[in-house]
Amino acid sequence: MSAPSVARSRVLPAVLGWGTLAFSIVAIEGLIRAGLINRFIVPMPSEILLAFPRIVSEESVLSRFMLTIAEAFSASFLVAIFGIAGGVLLHRFNLLRQATETWVAALAAAPLVLIYPLYLVIFGRSATTIVMMGFTAGLAPTVLKTLEGLSATRRVLVDVGRSFNLTPAQQFWKILFPSALPTIFVGLRLGLIFALINIVGVEFLINFGGLGQLINELAERYDLAGTYAAICFVVLVSVCVFVLMERLERWLRPVD
Amino acid sequence: MAEAGRLTATAAPPLRALLRPVTLLRIAIIVAVLGTWELVAASGLLYRDVVPSLSAIAAALGKTLSDPSFYLHLGTTFYEIGLALLFGGASGLAVGLALGASKLLARAYEAFLYYLGPTPKIIFFPVMIMWFGVGAGSKVAMGAISCFFPIALNVAAGMREIDPVLIRVGMSFRANPWQMVSKIYLPAMRHPVINGLRIGLGVALIGTLLAETKLSNRGVGFLVIQAYSLFNMPQMYALLIVLFVIAIGLNALIGRLGGIDEIKRR
């Protein structure tokens, strides 16, 4: 394929995708101005755009953002410690793995966020509830991915370790862990995503904390443009975090 | 005598299965967890009633399951989840088929779906209330938004993995677009579609129930948050047990119907 056709094949989809988005925004603006869409239900995109500086200055979005990120990292820190330790434990003791792996998989598929009222009772309406909810949601995928990574270590690498008479600790730190690291990182990425989703969700539901609470407050004040702007901000933050984590994961993944 | 011998012969395998180390360990873990729970409940280490006794939870579970009004709430939740899966699933299927069939469309739009998919959907609830009201409509919309993304992405990915020979066979028979979808695409990508539905059902359930806990006067989510408001902890535990059993059971059922478990075992 020639260079211009390669460039065309990359540019055309991008133009189509972003063009459709821009066209939709302009069309919605026009339909609202023409009175075909009720402006008390859907604010004009231009109003949403103007609401951005307002929510940044008046609603202290940045400090709320930092609070949500701090909660997400606290939860991820707990997920990393307990999730990786859990995966290592299940890998080390095969009987325990056989007995509990299906339970952990069932937990990963269970709607754990629904226990947030229970956490409200135990930890109160506080940041602890939010962090613990994020931790609970992110734990099972991290355990499973750590286990998967350790189990997928190539036999030849383990045999090399044995031939050097490595102790179990050396075998783990020099062979198993480095080999499983890319898969463990996939688990951590999943854990962080699950934690972030649940943290923002619970902030919104219990009206406490950072960005989730901001959306709830603006909606209760019937600040339509502000609510939509805050939602867009949360979506942008989520997308940025996912892209960042994906890049990190790609950087960590060994070259085939 | 012969009858007794046959009985012993048929009874032996389950007993042997029960005495397997894995089963014994599972039983030991369950007994340890339940025992610790009962001890904590009796000791009063945590606030009173936060950890109710197992008998209180069992009684609440029995009371909940024998209460006819619970089934009305359960019916409301199932109705909302069913409609959410219908709307979200149908639109996800259509979008997934379009993205899977066209490289240009996939390159133009799939990234939007891929990155929007994992955002917390519950934050759209205020918007859904404004659009669809405080009744069942906003809960259905929440469930539909939640399940749309995994279904669309799974269908698109599944369609790209269809054996090109099958597509060529369909084209050589001059199948029209509808016949291509119903006779070639959908049967060939049964597993990714079922897998998407399975994930979609899980997130639709979460979206709908969370919306019910936020603003509703019916549904199981409403019952959970009502139990919290009344500090009726045994009932809350009972409702959570019911919800988890339903969620995990439906997940396993869809997986089994679609043969996902067989694929994993292979």
Describe the protein:
The complex is a heterodimer of chains A (256) and B (266). Chain A has 256 residues and is mostly helical. Chain A is 83% helix and 0% strand. Chain A folds into 2 domains: 3-41; 51-252, MetI-like fold, CATH 1.10.3720. Chain A has helices at 3-33, 45-58, 61-92, 94-109, 116-123, 127-151, 155-163, 168-206, 211-220, 224-252. The model of chain A has no long low-confidence stretch (mean pLDDT 88). In chain B, α5 crosses α7 and α11 (220-229) packs antiparallel against α12. Chain B folds into 2 domains: 13-51, no CATH class; 62-265, MetI-like (MetI-like fold). By secondary structure, chain B is an all-alpha fold. The relative contact order of chain B is 0.11. The chains are: A mainly alpha (256), B mainly alpha (266).
SSE blueprint:
The complex is a heterodimer of chains A (256) and B (266).
Chain A: H1 3-33, H2 45-58, H3 61-92, H4 94-109, H5 116-123, H6 127-151, H7 155-163, H8 168-206, H9 211-220, H10 224-252
Helix pairs in contact in A: 2-10, 3-4, 3-6, 3-8, 4-6, 5-6, 6-8, 7-8, 8-9, 8-10, 9-10
Chain B: H1 2-18, H2 21-43, H3 54-66, H4 68-101, H5 103-116, H6 125-132, H7 136-160, H8 164-172, H9 177-188, H10 190-214, H11 220-229, H12 233-257, H13 260-265
Helix pairs in contact in B: 3-12, 4-5, 4-7, 4-10, 4-11, 5-7, 6-7, 7-10, 8-9, 10-11, 10-12, 11-12
The percentage helix of chain B is: over 70%
User: How many DSSP H or I helices of chain A?
Assistant: 10
CATH class bucket of the largest domain in chain B: Mainly Alpha
CATH architecture of the largest domain in chain B: Orthogonal Bundle
Quote the distance from N terminus to C terminus of chain A: 25 Å
Shape of chain A: globular
Assess the beta-strand content of chain B as a share of residues.
under 5%
Uncertain segments of chain B: 1-5
Please describe the biggest sheet of chain B, giving its number of strands, its sense, and whether it closes into a barrel.
Answer: none
Alpha-carbon Rg of chain A, integer: 23 Å
